[in-house]
Every structure is written in C-alpha cells, then in structure tokens.
Amino acid sequence: MRKSIIKHSLLSVGILGIGLLLTACGTKSSTQTSNKLAAKQQIGLSTTAEITSLDLSKIYDKTSFIQIDETFEGLYRYDANGNVEPALATKTEISKDGKTYTINIRHNAKWSNGDPVTASDFVYSWQRAVNPKTASQYTYLFDNVKNAPAIVNGKLSPSKLGVKAVGKYQLKVQLSRPTTYFKMVMARETLYPLDKKVVEKYGKKYGTSAKYTVYNGPFKNVGWTGTNDSWKLIKNNQYWDKKAVKLSQINYTVAKSPSTAYNLFQSGKLDLISLVGEQAKQLGNNKDAVKRPLAATEYLQYNQRNGVFKNRNLRLAFSLALNRNQLINKVMQNGSIASKGFVPLDFAKNPKTGKDFADEAFVPGTVDYDATKAKQYYKKALSQLGKKNLTVKLLSADDDQTKDVIEFIQSELQQTLPGLKVESNSIPFASMLARASSGNFEVNFTGWSADFADPISFLSQFTSNNPENNGKWNNQKFDQAIKNSNNKDANNPTKRWQDLINAEKILASDQGITPIYQPNGIDLVNPKLKGVVYDRINGHYDYRTAYLTK
C-alpha cells in the first residue's frame, strides 16, 4: 500500500546482550510506570521512521498511513483478516451491472473542529487525489472510477470524476467497469474524506504539521511539528463513536534502533515492539510474544530508464546470488518467509481450486539461490554491457534494521559475482522515498504491503504508466494481462485469476524486480494491552478499541 513502504526490524546476531534480552518481565520501576499509564489509559508506541505528512492525498509511507488510520475514518474499515466492515457508511446499494454504488453515510460524524462530515467531503477528497496538481502516488486506487485515468493524465477536469453528493449524506459512485473488490478500495486511506474548508484555509501548509490538520477519526494528532521524532495522539471527543474509544492518549516515538525500542519497552514506556534478530531468537517463545503474519514483500527495484539494469541477465544474476533462506534464518529469525514471487504466500486463493496464488504463479529459476547460474548470468551480462567489472549503488533507508539487510545483500552479491562492487547509500527514510520516486537511484531496497486482499493490489503498480513503477520496467504482455483482468475478464473470476497469474509469471521471468522476503514478524506486547486489531493484509494496527487493563 502506499508507497506503503514497510520497514521491519532486523538485527544482526550478537548486538544485544543475552542478559538484556532475558529480562522481559521488566523492573519494579517499569511496572510502576505501566500501572500509572494504565490508570490514565495511555500507551506508548514506536515507529522506525518519521511521519512524512498528514495529508492523506499525498502520503506514501507506512508510518504516515498508520497515523492516518488512527486519526481519520472512511466509508469502510478493515478487520483482522483484511475484510471490510462499515465505518461511516450505513447502507450501500450496488447496481445489477456492478458499476454504480449508492452509499448513505452517518449523520452524526464530525471533524475535530466540529464541522459535519458530509458526502461532499468525500467528493472533494477524491477529486483532489486524482488531480495531477496534487501528485498523489495512489491514484491507481481510482483506476476503475469513471474518468479517473483521463483526469490523472490531465485530459479531463477533476470535476468529471464519477463521484457526486446526492444531498448532504448520500454518495453516488460511478465505475467504468465492475470491480468486485471496490469496497476494499474504499477502505484505503486515500479515499477518506477531507474538510475542504480547512484544506483550502491552510493551502500548502495543510498536513505539514499537527496544527495544520483536522481529523474525523478516533484520535487527533498533537505535537507533530513536521520534523520531530515524537508526538501524541489524543482521544477525539468529536468522533461519532467516541464511546468505543477507551484510550485517552498514545505516545509515539521514533526508534530506529531495535535495542532502543527494547529498552523503552523494558522501562514501561512502550507497550508493543517488533522483535528482531537475536531478540526474536531469545524472546520468540515468550508468553507475551505475538506472531504477526503480513501480506508484504521486501524487494530490490532496478532503475531501467537507462544504464546497466536494462540488462535482464544482470537482474537474474542479482536474484540468484541471494541466499534468502540464510537471510531469514540466520539474520532475521522472526518468522519471515523467503519470497516465491512478488505476491506473498497465504494472501489469495484460486477461486476454483483453492490453490495459493504464490504457489501457482511461482517460476523456478527466478528466486532460487544458485551461485553457479548467478555467475553465468553475470558473465553474460558483462559481455553484453562491454564491461569487465561493475560498480553499482544500492539505495536504502538508514535505520539500523534496514542496514543489516543491506549488509547481507551487499556481502552476498560481492562474494558471488566476481568483479562486482556494491556501494551502500543509506539515507533518511523520507529522503530515500523522494529519491526513489524521482528515479534518482540504480538499485533500491524497498517494500510493499497490500492495499487490500487481492493480487491486483501488488501487481498493478508495475504497469508501464503507474506512478509507483519507480524503475520504469516496461512489458507489454504484462500490461495486457492486467488490462484483461480489469476489463474483459473483470466479472469472470476464473479468467481474471489466470490473467493475474500470467502477469506475476511475466514479472518474475523478466525479473522486473527481485523479491527477497515476506516480512512476517513477532511482537512483544504488554499483557495489559487488549483490544488491538492487527490487519494481517496490510500490517496496520487499529487502536480504536484498544485499552489497558488496570
């Protein structure tokens, strides 16, 4: 989702002392701190990266998406299995041809400034998102809304988008084609409403800090200045279902180092952390450890605008040189899974046979570790490129967890491929995203978690004209397969499934990207923290109904 770039915790073995790891029960002082916060219904959480924006039309990273999840609300929300349930929608009628949605919304929803949430707020938000001037990276979510592609490409006015308000509390959406998963799309953050009055009041400042934002969700952000690494979410007393919200405050801090996060957990200042490396090994069976499956993939994307990575043999050499099982078993040790393709395992099932998508779409010889074949592909690539050796730069975020993965990738590639030098370029998360989006990279380590529970959520971003296709990989057969799934086969589940299988196989065979692993994880959770909803599809945590037992 998004760039839903995911940053999960990795830590090389031996960084933390065993004595530190085995004291998960905490100290007397940490227990006292926890009890005081429980009485106030305050919890502490951390992220591995800073917020980039609170403007839901412009965000692209997981940290910001999670903040939007807690402070805004759309027509639908996701449950723990990625299924949708009504949020602001009270009734939805779908026409027989599947192309018209008539949605009634709640009359008692308000913004944190007291303004009513109306159907017009959704119309404004959707039109703003597809407006090229907004430069949203998630316009593809609107692809099946009438006129959206033409608007995104600057050929039509945003006012022509197939959405309109029918009175104050009814929304009518016109699709260009039937879309069986459209309710899932409407639960995505980019389709949440916006208070037009506030957005236009602050202009370019909107969403750049907490004070230049207004909220309609269970919490509101306080204290984020746009650059700081700590902030608070406090209960939004204007929220329509505030009786369901038990927490009074969530204290957020950025902890790029797993050891920092662990120390904060030990001291009672954090109530949930992700375990990594030696942490996962030592504490994975702790009574307070919780396994977190996730529909996501971490991968290498190659800049194929020009340069050496237009060469398929080089891309295949990189993929086959990586021992993914060693990475997940020796470095990560947290339940992550070696990738079989871009779409992760246990994400989607064949509607006819029940077979897992990742198994059915797997292409042997594309992600299997094979040093001999990797050398052969590399030798061919060098010959075709007219080079005797090669130096490439690998762009990534600069948090400690990512650095451990990069060190592993760097070592594997250089040891397996003779004459190859990989220069690591680790920079702040937001800067990395900006550089990747602008195409200013050679190879980029990044990740993607699902927007909703359908393979199209992964695959569509690599069509030729998708703004998320940062490396500009281009394959006409792939584009056609995605087009078929969205058009002529949209209402035929079996044919649509095969279209998506074909697309995944094309992407894998050409190594348009190199999938590395599916970042399933393990959390260490304060046993007093209850009512948290974890969505295994996109990896987001919902604290709307969370609370601390006393």
Characterise this structure.
The protein is α+β, with helices and mostly antiparallel strands and 550 residues long. 31% of the residues lie in helices and 19% in strands. Residues 1-25 have low confidence and may be disordered. Helix 17 (476-486) runs antiparallel to helix 18 (493-510). It starts with 17 loop residues before the first helix and ends with a strand. The protein folds into two domains: 42-248 and 526-548, Dipeptide-binding Protein, domain 1; 296-518, Roll (Dipeptide-binding Protein, domain 3), CATH 3.10.105. It has a six-stranded mixed beta sheet, sandwiched between helices. A hairpin with a 4-residue loop joins strand 6 and strand 7 (170-174). The chain has 18 helices and 23 strands.
